[in-house]
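Per reviewer request, we include the raw input and output of the structure prediction for the construct analysed in the revised manuscript.
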Amino acid sequence: CILIFEMIMGMPPSFLFVQIHFNMFFFHVNIFFVISGFLFEQKQTRYSKEGFPGYLKGKFKRIFVPYYVSTVLFSLAILTAAQIPRLADMVVHMNYKVKGIFAILTDPLWYHDPLFRSLWFSWCLFWYFMIAWFFRPKGLFRGKTILIVFGLSYVLNVLALSINDLGLFHVGYIWLKLIKYYQYFYLGQYLYSRFRGKLPISDRILILSVLGAAIVIIKKFSGVTFHNTILMHVVGQAESLIFAMSVMVLLLNVAMRIRGVLRGHMVCIGNSSYAIYLLNSPWIIPVIAVIMNKLGAGMIAAVLVMYLCGVYLSILLETIFKRILRICYENYKIA
């Protein structure tokens, strides 16, 4: 529930209603990748029985197809709106690029020139699952290996960001994401392989996590900045990593303590988390945010309404879509 709330608030224009907004404090993506890697390892037996063709088909159908359909539908909506005089000005005002049919159908395949960037998670997740299937040498999930993966990811991310800022070369947006977040997917694989779902969180780890998060927050609010491009990214990426890992430990500790409370509610939201992610941006949240802005709603009211609509309207729409698809599929079989 916490991660879903944080995800919704992290989507533009949700954060327009939040007075304090720092990208590095949005940690839901990191943890969602950890969960994905964890679940991949948990389901290894089933995946092995399916074989790669069945595995590829399942991931393509559950991850890539919803991403592709959502992206194409939104691009078609922009194309249609651009042909209507009353809506054309809005398209221009919001800086949406009007694409041709060929670009609409092909660009999402390699995440080229997206009209909205929020679905990069799906594209990366699909390829992380493909990497995970092939990249599994014996002894992969050891303490030294996880440190190497995190260290390599950190160095490559700092280099890529610095190269972009210095104008030496352009590393694309989606490649920056692939480099930065693979370590978290791998961490999820490591945690399951090492601990088999029983994650020990000692008091020492909790204290270090609190201190790590506190230091990063204090540093952020202190206003200290670095003018050297490379040093700025070295410190910035270290802060982001420390904060994400610290919050992940703290949230895991909270989840383990309250998992018996509101269990049904959390399971319902967890089962629909991907639908909530796909439907909120650019569909639900922008519309709700505009309505709240027109009504002059205060920050607390707007955040509450956006969360409730973002979660429960998504679950309702998912249920309706599934029933429609089930009816269509059954009628197709009968025909």
